[in-house]
From TrEMBL:
GO cellular component: membrane
Sequence similarity: Belongs to the ABC transporter superfamily. ABCA family. CPR flippase (TC 3.A.1.211) subfamily.
Entry-linked PROSITE patterns: ABC_TRANSPORTER_1, ABC_TRANSPORTER_2
Protein name from the UniProt record: ABC transporter domain-containing protein
Entry coiled-coil feature ranges: none
UniProt keyword Metal-binding present: no
Source domain of life: Eukaryota
Cellular compartment(s): Membrane
Amino acid sequence: MADSAPASFSTRANALLRKNLTYQKRNLWSNVRLIMIPFYLCVLLVVVQVLFDTQVNNSDENRCGCQCINGTNGDGKCVETCGIEYSTPEQAFFCSIPSPPPWPPLLQIPRPESRAVISDFSRNKDFPTESCRRTGSCPVTILVTGDKQPLGKALSANIFPTSFSVNSSDLLPTLANNVLGTTADADFTNYLDPGIASNLTIYNIQSECIPNATLPFSFGQPPLQFKKELTCAKGLNLWRNSSIEVNDEIFKGYRKGNPEGKINEITAAYDLLNTDRNNFNVHILYNSTYKDESGNRPAKLVRVARSVNLVSNAYLQFMHGPGTRMLFEYIKEVPKSETSLRLDIASLIGPLFFTWVILLLFPVILSSLVYEKQERLRIIMKMHGLGDGPYWMISYAYFLTISMLYFICLMIFGSAIGLKFFRLNDYSIQFTFYFLYVNLQISLVFLVSSIFSKVKTSTVAAYIYVFGSGLLGLFLLQFLIEDSSFPRGWIVVMELYPGFSLYRGLYEFSQFAFMGNLRGHDGMKWKDFSDSAMDEVFYIIIVEWFVALIAAYYIDKVSSSGKDPLFFLKNPFKKSPSLRRPSLQRQGSKVFVEMDKPDVTQEREKVEQLMLEPSTSHAIVCDDLKKVYPGRDGNPPKMAVRGLSLAVPSGECFGMLGPNGAGKTSFINMMTGLLKPTSGTGLVQGLDICNDMDRVYTSMGVCPQHDLLWETLTGREHLLFYGRLKNLKGSDLTQAVEESLKSVNLFHGGVADKPAGKYSGGMKRRLSVAISLIGNPKVVYLDEPSTGLDPASRKNLWTVIKRAKQHTAIILTTHSMEEAEYLCDRLGIFVDGSLQCIGNPKELKGRYGGSYVFTMTTSSEHERNVEKLIQDVSPNAKKIYHIAGTQKFELPKEEVRISEVFQAVEKAKSNFTVFAWGLADTTLEDVFIKVARTGQAFNVFS
């Protein structure tokens, strides 16, 4: 027996959790296949990395050079010897360098065609004319500003030397006394300076020189020996009145700093601030775009040291004379051991693959939610007492657990097979990122599921989202991230798209793993969190997670629960109005319609009285219930239910009969919460269906017209789930399930433990009835429960329903008159949205079946004799059927006595041959047809 109290929140949550775990167990191999997808992708990345290592990382070009040297033992065998002396310049980078070579310091200068000249956007006209670009003789410009102009101009005269000489026997000190410049970007280290190793020109910058004069010299020892030519370039120092002017000219001269795209680059600038003879204070301004500005990679070296030395020397010479000098002889790295190329290609392409892996859960979860919606499983669970709270909590926790196991397996797989993407980055950061994102993803799925009603459509859209996000992330987002000129603000805006925020986080992991592996240190740690873009990604994900979750819950409340869109604005402490209220005043037209229906009028008056009483024994009371569907495509509004008033006490089975389209389904849908009444209300166990539907569901059972079952759950598991929702526990639950299975003939032969998907149509129907009756609900709605059953199963099911109605109010719809007569205590015939008559079967047949049906079969020549016989017995008889000697007549009961009919037939037999004859009372089917025709004719007339 069910507990008198409805199931608690925890009981209903436990029921859904057990059902979900059972469902998950049934789909074990599907889950295994799902988890194997990230494993296969990780293996694929490892294979790609192995091939890349073989062909690139470990190739001869990318490791220290080796040569075969003849051995000293005279056997003719050579010994492979490796070292920098056997290497090409490209191979030398990977060799051990016990004593790194010293490189002369270089000043970063613009290319000749980019150096500052007179331009439209510069207010100052002291630059050289643009003609110098044609000859390649444009000077290298440095701007100077500060509080004291005379001091600034004095220092400017000392920045660049006026002559140049080379002492080949002691090259580095000679070069240190001069200013060498390069247009080549610096590298990540100083083991090999690109300004010297490349084919680009090295410039000797002097205050006065012969334009483009060259001086050859050689530098270094084999294999790092370079023959270079020093080309003279003039150094130009210009005074500016403020740092604002300096900033403006540097920015506008940058290649993308002005709308016309004209390049007018300044080498550097010095803001001397309050520098005087007692105080040296200077700010150095330079173009930082020469370093790596991708946003997350370690920056290349920036050539600032030489700029510092130039202004320092200028100040010393100003203070102590031209002979004073601070030598800056060379730049040198620390010693290094032999290295190898360690390009982690798996980390570089990882964001695309791992975006697909993580997003793969999106269509899986979405299909599950839309399947429940498509098969109406969510609503049938709700009708049996599963509230929104337990459903959301368990469903969210269930999908979150699956998602966490999924990405934990991904991290374990990736780490176990050696992917640096997982091994180098801090596991706690990775776990936090994946945890936050799958929460956002689940919230988005709940939100998006409200859009779709078909699984196929949702699946196609979800996979387009999955693969589209990965490809757009690779070819659009990553391209823009690595473009230093693209505004960072727009990157943040793009990351508001959830697929891009996932890709950006994975991109950050990949870059840190790549550079960490390349340089032999760890990847991303918490100390790098704010230096990368992960902080903004985390903020975006967290905010969108809560926004999506709240929006999903709101839409669900409004759509599935039928709540008012502004329900959250209502005062939760305000008491709801009394449910017992006087009925609305009926219109005169309604009284006119019911004047000829005393049974319907009596039922309406009964309902009015019940609505005034503080309590009632009637389980179901409908008071002037109406449903109007709005007109569409130019059609007028459709009145589906026209002011229905009905009272059904506990222990009664009320049958609703009516032709298709009469409004029975609309009535049932309003009573079960699928539709909101246009006006009027209904009370179930004293609870208003308009305001307290969630509480109504706890005492309700429903057998819908179509079987709403999980294909992979067994009949027993269905009943265990719904039994728990009805607060059945322990032995009571086990006993109730077994009794239900036995009552509908699903217990023996292992049928109870077969998946419902393998049931026949009749077996599914019987299971649906058993579900609606388990736990002895107070109110049960049975919509054509015996459809598709064989006669034996139908009779058995009738017995089950008849037994169940002892303490339950049942509303049953059917097209079987036999079923209605056997099960229903009272019947109501519903035509065109209104109740035409109400009463028990016997009363209806007596009230609307006022005639007998007489049938007689004779030969054709005696048909007139039969007609005369009937006229003698009943003058007002009406012929209703005639074919091949068989005739049927309706005989008004008030004109006929059965004994007189028998006497007349016996007398007729002596005059002509009678093959067959019969006299039948009116059936319920006759009553139904007559009432339906009368009701339809009246409605058409009215």
